[in-house]
Automatic annotation (TrEMBL), chains A, B:
Residues 66-85 bind DNA. Signal peptide: none annotated. InterPro entries: DNA-bd_HTH_TetR-type_CS, Homeodomain-like_sf, HTH-type_TetR-like_transc_reg, HTH_TetR, Tet_transcr_reg_TetR-rel_C_sf, Tscrpt_reg_YcdC_C. This is Pyrimidine utilization regulatory protein R. The keyword Nucleus does not apply. The keyword Transcription applies. One of its GO terms (molecular function) is DNA-binding transcription factor activity. One of its GO terms (biological process) is negative regulation of DNA-templated transcription. Keywords: DNA-binding, Repressor, Transcription, Transcription regulation. Residues 1-34 are annotated as: Disordered. Residues 43-103 form the HTH tetR-type domain.
Length: 239, 239
DNA sequence: GTCTATAAACAGATAGAC
DNA sequence: GTCTATCTGTTTATAGAC
């Protein structure tokens, strides 16, 4: 049972994604270079690999995806892929990093001087659009968090927490001003995330049960309207 | 690249969980036997393995978990585990099967002769209790559906769909009777699932952002109250 | 930067003794 | 039923030529 393998440097935010399975590492790569040139080619290739990796990781998870599959999907050789990313985990982390930024974006829009109804309705629409346009991103994020967010923990605890606390303050302002019902800001944020991401993460189930997908414009609008209605007005009839 | 391996019989509802990676199979096992005896021991061992497998699969996924880990967690030898389950996938399917029954249970309670408010509020409470008491079950279900439900597809399309359609009918009755706002039954069900399962699937994020978990009775009640309020009355103040 | 081997070792599964 | 030993293909990663 004893391990004779050398340990990865596992920089910064890395934590084991599975009980105990260290894998060897290598020198840092990423040649990256000057302003403009044919180094554009490099960036493009990196992007192609990252895109292919997102598609596969989000469907099969880190361990369910092989480097061979990513290389094939990105149309590069496996060896070549390792020229751009030191190892599998580094690639996975790079994908997650890109993800978090775009995943957070809709939330940044929230501001206290907005009308609460407009702000919430708009947020629901943009998050549902995200579920429609970038379902793999939503799914990979979900996969990562389900597994305890081993690689995103720090960012969630810092960047995300700061942002959410700020927006919770905005919501609290609205509640205190009587412009929203007395709901806890955090729970409201969770509800917004949950109902909107559901259509990406559980797209399979949604399609199996309704026979439709967000790609269908009618279904998208119907979904937006229903989610807005439920979260804003509630399921009970108004008095 | 050519595959010289024999193919698994992959009984019934099996579909590849990953692009193309068939693995050899074996004779069907599961000795299982008469009414009572020391065959109780067998059932216990099976249960221990299933329990350990649920814990690991839900955290690391099918491919992120090794049979060695399951065996160790269940305190049986790897070879012995293979006596009870033909192969890794069979074990995974067995875990999922057990899961679906218990996951569906709360929904069965729904009946048209109930008061809509009572029914929905009660459903929210029982689903949140499930998220508190069996988070691994919720997470494994989520993992499976995210990945396209390769092993649950049939059951979702049949058993689940039938049940949901029936309950959608109940909700529609309430809507038509003016006892619920005019919301689409399917979207309401999705919203109920999403907001309640979120506290299990995204428990890591919830804890990172609020510092609390459903295991805390105060937080549990606070969550129940907020989710009920949002889904039933909505976030906007009543006129 | 990209490719052709090839190392290194794991993880799933099995044979066969007890 | 349970164990020891072992086989097999897969998969990550690297060395070294071009």
């Amino acid at each position: 049972m004893l391990q004779t393998r050398r340990f990865t440097d596992r920089s910064a935010l890395s934590m084991p994604t599975t009980p105990t399975k260290p894998r060897p590492a290598r020198k840092a790569v990423v040649p990256a270079a000057e302003g403009t040139r044919r180094h554009r080619q490099i960036a493009d290739k990196r992007a192609a690999i990252l895109g292919a990796a997102l598609g596969l990781f989000s469907r099969f998870g880190l361990h369910g995806t092989t480097i061979d599959q990513v290389a094939a999907a990105a149309d590069v050789s496996k060896t070549n892929l390792f020229y751009y990313f030191a190892n599998k985990e580094a690639l996975y982390v790079a994908v997650l990093r890109d993800l978090l930024d775009v995943w957070l974006e809709p939330l940044r829009a929230f501001a206290a001087d907005q009308d609460p109804h407009e702000a919430l309705a708009g947020y629901i629409r943009s998050k549902l659009a995200f579920s429609r346009d970038r379902p793999e991103a939503s799914r990979l994020f979900c996969l990562e968090v389900i597994q305890g967010a081993p690689l995103l923990r720090d960012e969630l605890a810092n960047a995300l927490r700061a942002l959410v606390d700020e927006k919770a303050g905005v919501i609290r302002t609205w509640v205190d001003g009587g412009r929203l019902a007395p709901v806890d800001p955090h729970h409201l944020v969770f509800a917004l995330w949950a109902v909107t991401q559901h259509y990406a993460d559980f797209a399979t189930q949604v399609e199996l049960l309704t026979g439709r997908t967000l790609a269908d414009p009618d279904f998208f609008e119907e979904t937006v309207a229903n989610v807005q209605r439920i979260v804003l007005q509630g399921a009970e009839p108004r008095a």
